[in-house]
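Hi W., the glycine complex you wanted:
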Amino acid sequence: MAQTFDTIKTYPGASNEEIRKAMEGAVAVVRSNLPEFTDKFESSNSVNGFYEPTDNVEWTTGFWTGVIWLAYEFTGDEAFKKAASIQVESFLERIEKKNDVNHHDMGFLFSLSCVAAYKLTGNEHAKKAAILAADHLAERFREKGQFLQAWGDPGEPKEYRLIIDCLLNLPILYWASEVTGDPSYADKAKRHIQTAMKCLVRPDNSTYHTHFFDVNTGEPTYGVTHQGNRNGSAWARGQAWGVYGVALSYRYLKNPEYIDLFCRVTDYFVEHLPDDLVPYWDFDFDTGSTEPRDSSASAIAVCGILEMCKYLPKEKADKYLEAADKMLKALIDRCANTDTSVSNGLLLHGTYARDSKENTCKNRGVDECNTWGDYFYMEALTRRMKDWNPYW
Ligand code: GLY
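Structure:
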C-alpha cells in the first residue's frame, strides 16, 4: 500500500484561486483549438503532444464536445455554444446512419455532447440523438447473463462479456427513462450494474477490467484484462471507471449497497497512489517505477469522489473530499498544460494503452494527452467551483 488517508492529509490541497486559474488556463487552450476542431474532432490521444483532427469516429469524440460545453458554462461565451451545437448535428447524423456504433460506448459519446446540449440549451436535435443512442445501447442488453455486451455483434460468443468502463454508459439509460417516461432503459442499466459489480470487484477491492459469460447459460465464467498489466492486476483507469461509475448509478438509483461498493473501490484507488499522487497506468507499479502514468485515471476518480460525496454522511465525505482535493492539486501542478506550443491538450501524462505480456494491446498514446483526461480534468475543476448539474 503506497498511501493511507492519513498520509494523504499531509499533501497540499488546491486553493479556490488555483482552481480558477487552472480553469482559465484550460479554457484558453480550448479557445485556441476551436478553429481546427469545430467541423472536425480531436483524435483520441495526442502524438508528440498534439491532437490531429478526425471525423466523428471511435468512442472518444464526445469528450471534446463535452470540453467545449464546460468552457461555455464557465465563460458564457456564445462562440463555444456555437461550436458545440455544430458538433451535435454530427452526432445526430452518426447515430441515424449508425456510423461506427457497433459497441456500447453510447454514453461516452452522447451524454457529453447531446445530453449536455439538451440540458444546457434545450436543443431538440440533441435530445433526439441521445434517445436514439440510448435505444441502440439498450439493444445490446443480453438477457442471458443480464449485462450490456461491450464489443462485437450482440450475442457473438467470442465477445460475450462486459467491461468496467460500461458503468459510464449507464447514465444515458437513466436519463432516457426520465425524459421518455419508459422505465425499461433504467431497468437494463440497473440489472447491468448488479451483474457487473458482482463479477468485477475482487475481495481485495481491486477490479477486473472485463468479465466473460457463458453464451448458452449466461453464467459468469472468468475475468481477464484488456488494457491492464495482468489479468489479476488493477488497471488504474478501470479502477477509476469503477469509482465514478458506481457514484453515477447511486445518483440515479440511491441503492444503499453502492455506498459500500464506492468506498471499497475508491479506497483501493487512493491507497495505491504513488508518492506524487499521479497514478501509474496500472497499480502493479508504484513510486520509483519507470512505467508511464495515467493522469486521466486520477481525473476520473476525482470526479467520482466529488459526485458521491454529495450523498455520503459528512465525516465520510470529508475524508474522500480531502483525498480528491490533493489528487486534483497534483494534476494541476504536475500534468496541466497551458502552453499551446508544447501541446494542444489540457492534461499531460496520460496513457491510452500500454502493451504487456497478458494484455492484448499495442502501445498507444503513452505519456500523451487523451481527450477523456482533458474532459474529466475540466469536469473536476468545474465541480470544485460550483454545484454542477452533470451531463451524465
Ligand atoms: N473505455 C476505454 C478506455 O478507457 O480506454
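Residues 165, 227, 237 surround glycine (CB under 6 Å).

W.
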